[in-house]
Amino acid sequence: MSGRALAERGLLAVFVVFLLTVPWSVPLLLNPFWVSVIAEILIWSLFAASANLLFGYVGLLSFGQALFFGFGMYGVGIGIDHFGLSFWPAFGLGIVAAMAMAFVSGILAVRLTWHYFAIITVVFSLIFYFIAVSAKSVTGGDDGINFALPPTFSFGTVQYSFADANFQYFFILAAVAICFLLMHLVVNSPLGKAFLAVRENDVRASLIGLNVYVIRLIAFVMAGFLAGVAGALFAFFGRYASASYMFYTFSGEAVVWAIVGGAGTLFGPVVGASLFIVIREVVSTHWEHHSLIVGVMAILVVILAPKGIVGLWRDWVDTPADSAEIPAAPELRTEP
């Protein structure tokens, strides 16, 4: 086993132990408020992973992931507030709505590449953002939808819901972990290899028999699924759904988190989202312009570590024999 593999397994084991003990270990060291912050980081990491799946593995730079995040939120909010659905049907409605929107918009979007693809994803996001803001009777407009939490599980008189902070944390952890496991299985499957082939050279991929359009559409819908799950979880976490989270700037944040953490790596989005959200929480209590620090750090990482933080760490721990195993990190290209 290579040195990098041993180091990664060791870090993963420490990370898993930390996550499993957060509700008890974090309050001993920090303010209990940080348990909720870590739960939020998990949700945003999953959202960043949806952007990473498209850019890091397929080579499509999307600024429309907030659209599917918003559909996941509104699927939950509308399902509970308007239809009176219980937890699981509302959760499923949010995910299905996000995937359906991803499929419909993806049919058109994945026909394009480069900056044209990025632009059309922004356009879709803006269209539905303004629709959500104007349809006040359904979406609540600027105020959004507030709803009461239904129980997640009921066993006779015993109920478990997000009102219990520990249950909320472990449910979010389990859902995000399952999504990352599914993503790990996909990117290491023949479909994942097809993603990489399309990312590296779509013309050559088509010449060896791969249907580039279908592969990109599959990736687009899968990314919509990840963003939809993140949006649904965030709706339960915040007890509301808002059109503001459908604006394309939130998609831009997900792209930045993925690139800074390490595009094309499984846990790059986790590293990027964790870094910037922790900076936001720590600095915002002392200085209102904390976004400047985040922006400067993002610029420095992109310039000094083009492969992201995870890529930089891998380069540092790799032996010469291991380095040949690393595929080239995707780069932002401006010309077709």
Structure write-up:
With 336 residues, the chain is mostly helical. The chain has a domain at 36-246. The protein is built from 15 helices and four strands. The strands form two sheets. It has a two-stranded antiparallel ribbon. Helix 8 packs across helix 10 (212-238). The longest helix is centred in the N-terminal third of the chain and has 27 residues, at 3-29. It starts with a helix and ends in a 13-residue tail after the last helix. Mean pLDDT is 88; it is low at 321-326.
Explain briefly what this protein structure is.
The chain is mostly helical and 336 residues long. It has helices at residues 3-29, 33-58, 65-81, 87-109, 114-134, 136-139, 165-187, 190-200, 202-207, 212-238, 248-262, 268-283, 290-304, 308-317, 320-323, and strands at residues 145-146, 153-155, 158-160, 240-241. The longest helix has 27 residues, at 3-29.
Highlighted features:
73% helix, 15 helices, single chain, 336 residues, two-stranded antiparallel sheet, mainly alpha
Give the SSE map:
Blueprint: H1 3-29, H2 33-58, H3 65-81, H4 87-109, H5 114-134, H6 136-139, E1 145-146, E2 153-155, E3 158-160, H7 165-187, H8 190-200, H9 202-207, H10 212-238, E4 240-241, H11 248-262, H12 268-283, H13 290-304, H14 308-317, H15 320-323
Antiparallel strand pairs: 1-4, 2-3
Helix pairs in contact: 1-2, 2-7, 2-8, 2-10, 2-11, 2-12, 3-4, 3-10, 4-10, 7-10, 8-10, 11-12, 11-14, 12-13
